[in-house]
Amino acid sequence: METGVRILLAFLVHHQIAHVGGQEDGGHEACVPGFQVKNYQLLYSGPFQKDRALLQVKFDDCAGNEDVKFDVSDPSFHVDKDLNLVPLQDDLYSGPVLLIHGFSAHADDMAQVDVPGLPGQSAYTLRDVLGLGQKLPNRSKRSILVPPMIVTENQRAPFPRIIGKAQVISPEKPGNHIFRLTGPGADQDPKGLFTINIDTGDVSVSRSLDREAIDSYQLEVSTTDFAGNIIEGPAILVITVIDQNDNRPIFKESRYTGEVLEGSPTGTTVMTMTAFDADDQGTDNAALRYNIIRQSPDKPSPNMFYIDAERGDIVTVISPMLLDRETLPTTTYELEIVAKDMAGSEVGLTGTATATITITDKNDHAPEFTHPLFEAHVHEGSTGVVVNLTVDDRDDPATGAWRAIYSIISGDPKQSFEIQTNPDNNEGMLSVVKPLDYEAIAFHTLLIKVENEDLLVPNVDYGPSSTATVHVTVEDINEGPVFMPDPLIVTRMENIPVGSFVASLNATDPDILELQSIRYAVLRDPAGWLSVNPVRGTVNTSASLDRESPYAHDNKYTALFIATDNGTPPATGTGTLIIHLEDYNDNAPYVVPSVAQVCEDAHDMNVAIVGGWDKDLPPNAAPFKIELGKQPGLDKTWKVTRLNSTHSQIMLLHSLKKANYQLPLLITDSGVPPLSNNTEVKVQVCICTKGRRYCSSAHSHRTSLLMLFTTLLLVLVCL
């Protein structure tokens, strides 16, 4: 009975896939694949005879019943090609129930044959039919027979429609139970799609279904007594929604773009078109076929491209020689693509999209100059663009196959010229980057080469037209005199006598082919110290040179001069004179700071530090000698001691009352001859405490002989 077990398992769990049409116009029901009659009776009247038809089953897979196969639970029987149930051998008995499993690519269904009148029929149970033993326990879940069911989507009224039947095979007295259906689609969301007749077990669908929303339902069937107690089950009921072709193929985008390189071999894949069909992918409802229905333009051939019907790959059909971007009427072709389901049959639904294919360029044309010779004229001494070189290139503009690169391959040993590409029009802009000299070379011959940014394809080379000659004529102009050297640097001592010689300017005229005279003049003399001979160019002092002047910086004085020739029109040139000024000891030193503080108690903080300062430079400045003035008696109260080359300390020798004193000092520098300066420092004698000083704000007392005598007398009295 192994075959019976396999049939029952398929009967319980197999998901059926079938293609079924909807209800036809006029209210007639469409074909439902499977057994058209699901229950048969075969009255036993004696032993079965081999090859004698017992009954004929009614099975239709709605597709011509091609390749339909049948399995019978009892291997002693089979269903022949005429759908007759036939014994394979002479057999005395069969089981009380025969199960027939019919299936094909379009249907999968079960039918039951009851065989009443068998001898000892009560001894046979469903468990015997399935070969599972001799005794079936009471209320076994296996006593509920629930075949899988199918229902076509989009069915029309009337509803409800019976789609299958649950049965109880049990030795118990019938009628003592009721059927119950539970699960999603029954008593759970979406509620009420399916119902079961509590008495007969007929399962019905209550309204139209949508396979694209839910393609199958799994429910449970059980039987209960009238008090609600479960007797049998639950058993699994799988309801499969059969697809209808109710969805058109849809392209993700309405317009697709692709490109193919010109000259590509025939069969080159350009792009892939992909559409989606929401119908069942396992049926022809979603089996798509692609086709090109329009090409625009249709020149040079209306069939330049082909699309693989199943994969959607667009490939080239046109020959590589004809796929020439420069000779085609356009570089962009538009294809209208249709995707049709039902494997492309006439009844299939369609979706459309547009494919735009661009023929891209490769560098199969070398750039060529429009003229073999270009001429340019340029004034000597000037720079900038002198001529624009034009080229023709048949390749696609704004690509590396069209963009030009120019180079000067001869005629420019001093790199006086430069050529760059104008990005707007691809012309070569030849420029002078170093001023040309008419007197040196009046005529230049340049050889220019043009190439593309991209390499040429292997079978194309640069020809003679990819080079051109440029004649550049230099035109003479009246050039201004040139100072040599510029700047002119000289060294002079400051304070030299007025009228002293400073420098001799030298300006020459570049126009050596013309005899022209040059005159000199002062252009900028900030301090007014200089004059120049207009013919000879000699510079003399007209005032004293002063290194310490604000017009001198870093010991240097700068003046500008102009030289003018007598050409037509006159031309000028400027030159710079820098005078490095040497120092002369012409500034006396002075003492800093001008105010110093000491404490009135000669034994507490009675020292002040002062230093020397000189506008001159060493050796006309430090070391300084700082000493007391020549007034008699100063050395009795004050003492000046040298600390280093620039500073000395003033020391109070005995106590003085709180006051301000003007102390005369003499400071002398180290120049030859040395300069001295008599100066006074205001010394504040302050009362000093811990951390603080109290100084007088009154006018200073001059340290005179009378004051010193009075102070000395007070000191003696105190002693």
TrEMBL record:
Its main location: membrane. It comes from the Eukaryota. It is found in: Cell membrane; Cytoplasm. One of its GO terms (molecular function) is cadherin binding. Pfam families: Cadherin, Cadherin_pro. Cadherins are calcium-dependent cell adhesion proteins. They preferentially interact with themselves in a homophilic manner in connecting cells; cadherins may thus contribute to the sorting of heterogeneous cell types. May act as a negative regulator of neural cell growth. Keywords: Calcium, Cell adhesion, Cell membrane, Cleavage on pair of basic residues, Cytoplasm, Glycoprotein, GPI-anchor, Lipoprotein, Membrane, Metal-binding, Repeat, Signal. The keyword Disulfide bond does not apply. Residues 179-251, 252-369, 386-483, 484-591 form the Cadherin domain. By contrast to classical cadherins, homodimerization in trans is not mediated by cadherin EC1 domain strand-swapping, but instead through a homophilic adhesive interface which joins two elongated EC1-EC2 domains through a region near their Ca2+-binding sites to form a tetrahedral, X-like shape. Residues 1-22 form the signal peptide. Gene3D superfamilies: Cadherins. It is a lipid-anchor; GPI-anchor. PANTHER family: CADHERIN-13 (PTHR24027:SF80), CADHERIN-23 (PTHR24027). The keyword Lyase does not apply. SUPFAM superfamilies: Cadherin-like (SSF49313). InterPro entries: Cadherin (IPR039808), Cadherin-like_dom (IPR002126), Cadherin-like_sf (IPR015919), Cadherin_CS (IPR020894), Cadherin_pro_dom (IPR014868). This is Cadherin-13. One of its GO terms (cellular component) is adherens junction. SMART domains: CA, Cadherin_pro. GO terms for biological process: adherens junction organization; calcium-dependent cell-cell adhesion via plasma membrane cell adhesion molecules; cell migration involved in gastrulation; cell morphogenesis; cell-cell adhesion mediated by cadherin; cell-cell junction assembly; convergent extension involved in gastrulation; ectoderm development.
